[in-house]
């Protein structure tokens, strides 16, 4: 352990810990005041500077297509003739579950009715035509473009250049040069760690209340939902900590189990929910409408703020995915050894987008079908109560064998959280080291520390009972500086890869 202490970057390890503890205390002591401050800061970044996020989103997506189809796509992430370390299914499962936490299930069930009550949908047309389009747009091409371009850059850095500093700043070395080891590099790494903590806080805080609501529904009791949510966060922390301490084997096993549970849920709803025809037809139309209007949706800014829809949703989502880019692409790049850049990007689009779209089409369109046929009026309930979590349990209650489905959703959400956060904790642990070789792993005590650190801020946000808007604010604020770093990483990758191909 003495030798281990010399390797540890104490600034990157301790400063985020201290700041998170301070923030937790602030949220506990002054929840309403802290939420108010968050709202004001979010207004500046999300409203005043909103176009910045949209430009980065569209630019990264277009760049991903260019890189995959260009000479850069032929670069093998490893030795020239090296074969992929994992099968396509195992690789795709780990990639999908590390990139998407349990919030995909929350939003798959709820997003259409959140949009349907927004005035912007009335501006666009009918609920039938547009409520199922935006979920697909917000969770497909641009978000996965963020992940996959950076995954290619990190994979190149780790497996081709064999650099032993697994940090954001190291990916900028081709541009920053010697400044990577100075103040500029330290600032980049600190920003990355803060963004990582913000992303995990938002994710945990958004979806775990649904798990608490499911438990109350299953047992027919009214336990304090804040207390139940915090207990769920702690239990999930125990599971992903156990998985992480068993290395990549534990992560792979958990990811496969999560994928089977996830697709089992989708198949059950599709085949036994009674809305199979509607789900398929509406989903097919939604994909076509999204593709047809992609650039219009990607560049919408609502300059007159008639509904502020882009500010409330699209800009939030791009920021949300940007803060997750601190961990997920590192992990994807790590497990992509032996694949070409083209295989990593295009294969990631196929598995990642395919699985994501299926979730929104099946789980979202099931309840939308009930709404449009008049079999249920979920919109009236949501407008009256504003309780998305309670409405989701009502939606699940309309399925055959509803208690079984509730248990399946609960277990799947826990599996999603566990597989996402063990990969995030592993990446964060690597940040705690000055240098870490390709075959080295962080010390288990460092991994354990990060497993605990990742749940502190979410618990504070849940305790403070932050609104959905304030939870979104955390990601929007953290993503602003990360956008500049992402551009720097991509430019550095293109420069370094060009030199590599010349040689």
TrEMBL record:
InterPro entries: BCCT_transptr. Pfam families: BCCT. It is found in: Cell membrane. It comes from Anthropogastromicrobium aceti. Its main location: membrane. Belongs to the BCCT transporter (TC 2.A.15) family. GO terms for cellular component: plasma membrane. It comes from the Bacteria. This is BCCT family transporter. Keywords: Cell membrane, Membrane, Transmembrane, Transmembrane helix, Transport.
């Amino acid at each position: 352990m003495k030798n281990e202490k010399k390797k540890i970057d104490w600034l990157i390890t301790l400063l985020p810990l201290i700041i998170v503890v301070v923030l937790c205390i602030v949220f506990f002591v002054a929840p309403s005041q802290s939420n108010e401050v968050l709202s004001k800061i979010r207004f500046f970044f999300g409203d005043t500077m909103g176009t910045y996020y949209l430009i980065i989103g569209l630019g990264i997506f277009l760049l991903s297509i260019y890189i995959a189809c260009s000479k850069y796509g032929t670069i093998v992430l490893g030795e020239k003739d090296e074969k992929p370390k994992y099968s396509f299914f195992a690789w795709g499962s780990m990639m999908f579950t590390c990139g998407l936490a349990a919030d995909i299930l929350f939003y798959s069930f709820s997003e259409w009715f959140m949009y349907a009550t927004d005035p912007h949908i009335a501006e666009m047309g009918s609920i039938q035509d547009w409520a199922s389009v935006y979920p697909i747009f917000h969770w497909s091409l641009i978000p996965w473009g963020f992940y996959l371009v950076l995954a290619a850059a990190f994979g190149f850095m780790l497996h081709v250049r064999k650099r032993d500093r697994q940090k954001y700043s190291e990916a900028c070395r081709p541009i920053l040069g010697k400044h990577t080891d100075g103040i500029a590099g330290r600032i980049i790494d600190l920003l990355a760690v803060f963004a990582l903590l913000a992303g995990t806080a938002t994710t945990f805080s958004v979806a775990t209340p649904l798990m608490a609501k499911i438990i109350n529904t299953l047992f027919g009791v009214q336990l304090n939902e804040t207390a139940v949510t915090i207990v769920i966060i702690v239990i999930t922390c125990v599971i992903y900590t156990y998985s992480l301490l068993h290395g990549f084997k534990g992560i792979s096993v958990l990811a496969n189990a999560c994928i089977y549970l996830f697709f089992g849920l989708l198949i059950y709803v599709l085949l036994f929910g009674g809305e199979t025809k509607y789900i398929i037809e509406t989903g097919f139309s939604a994909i076509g409408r999204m593709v047809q209007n992609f650039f219009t949706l990607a560049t919408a800014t609502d300059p007159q703020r008639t509904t502020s829809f882009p500010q409330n949703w699209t800009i939030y989502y791009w920021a949300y995915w940007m803060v997750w880019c601190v961990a997920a692409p590192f992990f994807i790049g790590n497990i992509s050894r032996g694949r070409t850049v083209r295989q990593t990007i295009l294969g990631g689009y196929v598995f990642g987008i395919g699985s994501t779209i299926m979730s929104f089409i099946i789980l979202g369109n099931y309840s939308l079908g009930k709404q449009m046929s008049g079999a249920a009026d979920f919109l009236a309930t949501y407008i009256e109560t504003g309780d998305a979590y309670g409405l989701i349990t009502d939606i699940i209650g309309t399925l055959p064998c509803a208690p079984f489905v509730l248990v399946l959703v609960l277990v799947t959400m826990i599996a999603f959280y566990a597989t996402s956060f063990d990969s995030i904790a592993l990446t964060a642990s690597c940040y705690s080291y000055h240098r870490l070789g390709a075959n080295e792993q962080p010390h288990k005590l460092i991994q354990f520390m990060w497993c605990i650190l990742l749940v502190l801020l979410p618990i504070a946000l849940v305790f403070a009972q932050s609104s959905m808007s304030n939870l979104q604010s955390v990601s929007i604020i953290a993503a602003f500086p990360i956008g500049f770093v992402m551009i720097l990483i991509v430019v550095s990758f293109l420069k370094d890869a060009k030199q590599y191909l010349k040689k």
